Amino acid sequence: MIETSVGTWSERQVLRQQLLRDECSKNQSLKLNMTNVIHNNRKLLRFYIVDDKYRILYGFICKVGSSHWKSVFLVLKGTFKTVEEIPLWRAHDPSLKKLSQYPPEEIEYRLRNYTTFVFMRDPLARVLSAYRNKLEEHNVPYQKAFGRRIIERYRDNPSKLELETGVGVTFAEFVRFITDKDAKNNMERHWKPVYQMVLPCNMHFDYIGKLETGKEDSEYILRYLRVDHLVRFKEPYRNTSNTEEIFTKYYKTISKEYLHRLYEIYAPDFKLFGYSMDEDLTRRKNYLLN
Questions:
Q1: What pLDDT shows up at residue 5?
Q2: Which of 109, 125, 176, 264 has the highest local Cβ count within 10 Å?
Q3: Pick from 221, 232, 233, 217: which is nearest to 287 by CA?
Q4: What is the pLDDT of residues 76-98, one digit of tens each?
């Protein structure tokens, strides 16, 4: 089911939640033993931010506006007065508590009693955003950690400078890397499949937001969380270029074979959250946010 804009916001929420339940029931392998997770593998819950004052759990996904939502929680925490004054680098403040930091009985209590929400994004748009931000732009840590490996593994006759700096990785090389089943540690949180991060088939989401409808979803969610009088969501910066043109520019460099591989890796994300897997990319509507 691909979501349309028909219906009220509440009706679309019902559809999103029903789709998630239906798809999870079709794929039981996506469900984990939560008792085991809570007692023996709490690190799997590290992608949930907890606000105990307002009883909120937020499943954050990198490249899906998570920095901006973390800013919201810093305001609620009292660290800052407004989201506008928070630089993006400060959004990743270690003072924001993760669900994984609590003892088992307190985790179970919060899962039962707190309001939980998550934001999702078209998987192909998220992959492209991760590439542009982490490898195409000047990002020394990622170029050294991943760029050098990618160039060494997939580029014929790389120069000494390319091997030393990891600068200049192409989008096609990046896609080869993340779809390479033989490449070790090729999944990093900025492009890791969402279903492996926030355990959507184990969690009850009171609200499911999408980056494509981010402004409306954010306003409603803040209202239903009863904190809209305390903080407002600052809409992420949008690239002023034509987003469909950007998407086409990069994905036209990806062969059918590697597009198939991308769909295979991110298939649960597409299906659980209602995104199109149409291989005619020119027919897809994508929103690329930096």
A1: 52
A2: 125
A3: 217
A4: 999 999 999 999 889 999 999 99
Cβ neighbors of 149 (< 8 A, separation 6 or more) are 166, 177, 183
Containing structural domain, residue 147 = 124-190+241-283
Can you name the residues that pair with 208 across neighbouring β-strands? 118
Token duo for residue 93 = 């403040």
Over the stretch 218-275, which tens digit does the pLDDT of each residue have?
999 999 999 999 998 776 555 434 578 888 899 999 999 999 999 999 999 999 999 9
Question: For residue 180, what are its two tokens?
Answer: 């390479």
Whether residue 175 is found in the same domain as residue 257: yes
What share of the chain has pLDDT > 90, as a percent?
84
Q: Distance (Å, rounded) from C-alpha 161 to C-alpha 148?
A: 10
In a domain, residue 170? The reply is yes
The rounded Cα 179 to chain-centroid distance in angstroms is 18
How many separate domains does the chain show? 2
One-letter amino acid identity for 214? Answer: G
**218 and 110: one domain?**
yes
* Token pair listed for 172: 């096609």
